[in-house]
Design goal:
The structure is a homodimer. By secondary structure, chain A is mainly α. Chain A is built from nine helices and three strands; from the N terminus they run αβααββαααααα. In chain A, strands 1-3-2 form a three-stranded antiparallel β-sheet. In chain A, helix 1 crosses helix 3 and helix 4 packs antiparallel against helix 9. The first copy, chain A, is globular and about 50 Å long. Chains A and B meet through helix 3, helix 4 and helix 7 of A and helix 3, helix 4 and helix 7 of B. The first copy, chain A, binds a DNA duplex through helix 3. Chains A, B: Keywords: DNA-binding, Transcription, Transcription regulation. Chains A, B: InterPro entries: GntR_C, TF_FadR/GntR_C, Tscrpt_reg_HTH_GntR, WH-like_DNA-bd_sf, WH_DNA-bd_sf. Chains A, B: Pfam families: FCD, GntR. Chains A, B: It comes from Streptomyces chiangmaiensis.
Chain lengths: ~240, ~240
DNA sequence: TGCCACAAGATTGGATCCAATAACAAGACC
DNA sequence: GGTCTTGTTATTGGATCCAATCTTGTGGCA
C-alpha cells in the first residue's frame, strides 16, 4: 500500500486538501494519531506546509470517511469509541459485509483468487502485529474488490476504518490460539469464494466478524472511559431525535 | 419537521456553513434540487448571502451525508443514481435497518408508540404524495428513535436520504393497491414493535423494504441513463481497488 | 471556601483576493 | 475535413487577514 502522499502528483492528490487528507488518513490508520487526539488546524497547517483552508477541507473529507469528528467552533479529533460503539460497528459489519462479499463474488477473477491465496499464505508465515493488520485488511478488501457498487464498498471501508484502532489494541493482547482460529476462518472463506458459494461466504464471513466482536468486547480494558487525551470538555449532547 | 434554516439561531446553525447545509439539505430532500444538478459555489454564495467558504464547507457536510458528491476542480452535484445503485442501497437497507429497529426496540416509550399510532392513522387518511413521503419517513424514523447508537442512526438516515428522490419519483406512479399494502406492512411492524418482538420486527421490516425495492426497480424508466441535467462530462473512472 | 463575573489567550469560522485547473471555442497545420 | 494546438472564460482551490466563539485563569464577593 503506497502512502497517499507519495502518489502520482497528477492523481487526485494534486488537490492539496486531498493530499493532506491522505497523510492524515495514513497516520490515523497507522495508529500515530490515536482516538481522542485533537487535530488543530494551525498545527497541521504548519506541519504540512499549507494554510488552514486545505486542512479544514481535509478534516471534512476524513469526517465523511468516519476517521474524524468535528464540533462547531471547537475543532476536530479522532473519535473516541465506547465499547458499545465498537460492538454496534461490528454488528453493522456482520450484516453488511456478507452483502458486499456476495455482490463481489461473481466478479472475482482467477487473479484475485491467486492473490488471496498469496496473502493468506503470508498471514500464516509471519507474526508482526502491524503486518497482520495490513494483510488482514488486504485479504478482506480483495474479496470485496469485485463489488460493483461504489457506495457499498465505501461504507464497508468506512466501517473498517472506524474500528481500526481497537482492532490493533486487541491484537497486541497475545492469544496462543487466535492465529489458528483466524487462519481456519480465512481458509473457509477463501474456499467458499473459490467455489463461488454465496451461502457459505455469508456464513463464514458473518461468523468470522461475530467471533472477533465477541472476543474484542470481552476486553473492556481496551476502551478508556472517554477522553483521557487532551482537554476535558463537555461533549455536545447526542442528537437523539433525528430531527 | 421544522426547516433547518428556521431553527434557534443559537443552535448548531449559528455556524454559517451548517445553516447553509441545512437549507440545501431541505431543498435536495424536497426535490427542488434534482439528481444531476450542479451546485455552483458562486451561485449558492450569492443566493444565500455568504461567501464561498461556508458554501464549500456546506457541500462537504452534505457529501458526508450522501446528499452530494464532489469532483476535484469540477464542483459538486446531486448524485445521479443508476437503477443498480438504488437496488444496492435498498439491499443495504434490508440488512441494516432491521438492526437499527431491534437496537431501538427496548428503548421505545409508550409516548413513541402513541406517536407511531397517530402517524400511521394520518398516513391512512390522506393521499398527497409529498405528505406521504414526510409521514412515512417520520414513521420509520420514530421506530428507530430509541436506537442508542449514533453511527447506526446516522447510517440509516444516510441511506434514506440517498434514495429519497427515487422514492418520490416512484410514488407519483399511481398504483391502486399500493396504499393498502404499505398500510398492512406498517400495521404489522407497529404491532411487532408494540409487542417488543425483535424477530417479527426484523421479518416485517425487511419484507417491507424488500417489496418496495422489487416494485421500485421494476420501473427502469425512473432512472435516466446518466446526467441529462446539465453539462455532459466524463465522470472520473471508479476507484476500483480500494487501494 | 465556593461561586460567579470578566478579561485574556487560543482556536475556529468567514470574507476577500489571487492562483490553478478545467471546459470551451477558434484557428493552424496536416 | 479532421485533429491538434492555443487562447479565453468559467469555476474551483488556496492564502491571508479579520471576526466570532470558546476555554481558561484571575479576582471580587458572599
Amino acid at each position: 500500500m503506497s502512502p497517499a502522499h507519495a502518489r502520482d502528483p497528477r492523481g487526485s492528490d494534486s488537490v492539496r486538501s486531498q493530499h493532506i487528507a491522505g497523510i492524515l488518513r495514513d497516520e490515523i490508520l497507522a495508529g500515530d494519531l490515536k482516538p481522542g487526539t485533537w487535530l488543530r488546524q494551525d498545527e497541521l497547517a504548519a506541519r504540512l506546509g499549507a494554510s488552514r483552508i486545505p486542512v479544514r477541507e481535509a478534516l471534512r473529507i476524513l469526517e465523511s470517511e468516519g476517521l474524524t469528528e468535528s464540533f462547531p467552533n471547537r475543532g476536530a479529533r479522532v473519535p473516541v469509541l465506547s465499547i458499545e460503539d465498537v460492538n454496534t460497528y461490528y454488528r453493522m459489519r456482520e450484516r453488511l459485509e456478507p452483502l458486499t462479499l456476495t455482490e463481489s463474488l461473481s466478479h472475482l477473477s482467477d487473479d484475485h483468487l491467486a492473490r488471496l491465496e498469496r496473502i493468506q499464505d503470508e498471514i500464516e508465515n509471519q507474526s508482526d502485529v502491524n503486518r497482520f493488520l495490513l494483510l488482514d485488511r488486504d485479504f478482506h478488501m480483495t474479496t470485496y474488490s469485485g463489488c460493483p457498487s461504489a457506495p457499498l464498498l465505501a461504507m464497508t471501508e468506512r466501517l473498517w476504518n472506524s474500528t481500526q484502532h481497537y482492532r490493533r489494541a486487541f491484537m497486541v493482547l497475545k492469544d496462543p490460539d487466535r492465529a489458528m482460529i483466524v487462519n481456519a476462518e480465512h481458509r473457509l472463506i477463501l474456499d467458499a469464494v473459490r467455489r463461488r458459494d454465496p451461502e457459505d461466504c455469508e456464513r463464514y464471513l458473518a461468523g468470522h466478524i461475530r467471533r472477533t466482536r465477541v472476543e474484542l468486547t470481552a476486553h473492556p480494558e481496551l476502551f478508556v472511559a472517554d477522553e483521557g487525551a487532551s482537554g476535558s470538555l463537555r461533549l455536545p449532547e447526542r442528537t437523539s431525535g433525528l430531527r
